[in-house]
Amino acid sequence: MAENEKLEEFEEEIPEPDEETIPLDPETGIDPEELHAELEGLKDLFQGEIDKMMDENPDADWKDFVKAAAEEKKLRKAGLLGPKCECCGERQANEDGVYCDECLENMKHYPFEWYKWFIPVVIMVLVFLACSFFAISFPVYKGTADAEQLVRQGKLMSALNAYDNINAEIKVTDENYGSKYLERQADLYYKIGVDSYEELTDFISTYYAGSAINKSSSKHIRELKEEIGNFSRIYDIYDSSMQSAKTYDKFVESYDAGVKTAMLTENPMAYYYKYLASVVYEQDAEVQLECVKKIQELGPNLKTLYLPLLAEVSLNQGKYDEVLTYTSQLAEVNSESTYVYLYKSVAYRMKGNLALAIGECNKGLKLAKEDPMINYQISVIDLVEGKTETAKNYAEVAYNNATTLTTYLQATSMYALCSALTGDKETYNSLCEELEESGYDLSPDVNKIINGKLTVEKVFTEGRGDFSWK
User: Fold this and answer.
1) What is the pLDDT of residue 63?
2) What pLDDT, on a 0 to 100 scale, did the predictor assign at position 362?
3) What is the mean pLDDT of each run of 10 residues along the chain (470 residues)?
């Protein structure tokens, strides 16, 4: 014991060696302290794994762990331990950890089942057929998308032209693409307004001939057809009342009775024809406005019908800024309506800006070169500017293309006036005889201008800015 104490005292007296002077292990050439730290780390790692196994199996004996490890090593060496083969799912996978040796050998000789050779062939055939059908149908689908885009832009006439191209394509392919695209076309005709009702009637007769109109899928088309039928019935009542009545009051008496008998008093078109009569009989703007307001009330979606009429009434009232407002609203619904440019032209003319007036007319002519109302307005502007020969040419176009009584009387009076002012007595006399045979007369303003009792400027730049029949 005394010797041990002396040994410990001796060791304490030995000075600690400098870190840089610690010699390396002569056999390994490794710093002893680094080696000691590494071994301690391995011991801790090993001890940690042992502790983990003991925690998971607290009742197990240490010998059991050793025995299990030895057994696992034996099975792994024999190839009996590891992931199953992904092909057969029974044998152990080989060293690559995916397939067993037997399955790998079979794959070399039989890589595919014989029937699987047909799968890519069938796929290629189906792809070919799909591409063929798509190539045939693509122009129809693309054309429909383009047409609907034009509708959203308010270009209704261009949209109808696009649909006409689709109809031609379908006729060539003789394929059935359903009824929706036909309904959209019918709605376009109806949306454009009364100027397209005749075309709508022809459209329905063409694409819903025979029993097609009676199908359940044609319900909407039957409703449109009924609307067109009511429009025609009201016109017959209007025409009959116009023929028998000498005054507006007499017309209203006869017309209202006929509309009531036909049970169409709540139809907006009943007030449309009453409005036309108020124009022919030159009623006050208030009377005309009352008719238009009833159209708007009974048919709020008929913007292409009542907006032009509101613009026309505003013209008669001299409210030219309101005219420009109504025409702008109409352009949002149908920017290709000639009424947009017609009424803008008149408004600018009455405001004294003939340059803007002729500009709007030229825009209208790009849409409809032979439109009677646009040609009539250009004739008026040219006559005011002293271009009588040019005015006569446009008046002739308006006269030849007039489709309503109002446009016919206006165009005929203008054509007769320009003919007289240019010395064309033959044309003037012919027009007078034609009107007389039809039971109508030229505007009294024509002879007043010819005889020097009235000026062109007075008629077309003041008051209503147009011919009068009083």
Assistant:
1) 61
2) 95
3) 49 51 53 66 63 59 61 59 73 72 72 58 60 55 77 86 80 65 88 89 88 87 92 93 91 94 93 92 91 94 94 92 96 92 95 95 93 96 96 97 90 96 95 92 94 94 87
Q: CA 139 → CA 68, 134, 146, 166, 227, distances in Å?
A: 74, 9, 10, 8, 33
Tokens 């209704």, residue located: 156
Q: How far apart are CA 411 and CA 379, in angstroms?
A: 9
85 CB-near residues (< 8 Å, 6+ apart): 91, 92, 93, 98, 99, 100, 103
Q: What local confidence, expressed as pLDDT, does residue 148 receive?
A: 81
pLDDT at 7: 46
Question: What pLDDT does residue 175 have?
Answer: 58
What's the CA gap between 260 and 254, in Å, rounded? 10
3 state SS for the chain: CHHHHHHHHHHHHCCCCCHHHCCCCCCCCCCHHHHHHHHHHHHHHHHHHHHHHHHHCCCCCHHHHHHHHHHHHHHHHCCCCCCECCCCCCCECCCCCCCCHHHHHHHHHCCCCHHHHHHHHHHHHHHHHHHHHHHHHHHHHHHHHHHHHHHHCCCHHHHHHHHHHHHHHHHHHCCCCCCHHHHHHHHHHHHHCHHHHHHHHHHHHHHCCHHHHHCHHHHHHHHHHHHHHHHHHHHHHHHHHHHHCCCHHHHHHHHHHHHHHCCCCCCHHHHHHHHHHHHHCCCCHHHHHHHHHHHHHHCCCCHHHHHHHHHHHHHHCCCHHHHHHHHHHHHHHCCCCHHHHHHHHHHHHHCCCHHHHHHHHHHHHHHCCCCHHHHHHHHHHHHHCCCHHHHHHHHHHHHHHCCCHHHHHHHHHHHHHHHHHCCCHHHHHHHHHHHHHHCCCCCHHHHHHHCCCCCHHHHHHCCCCCCCCC
pLDDT at 102: 77
| pLDDT computed for residue 280 by the predictor | 85
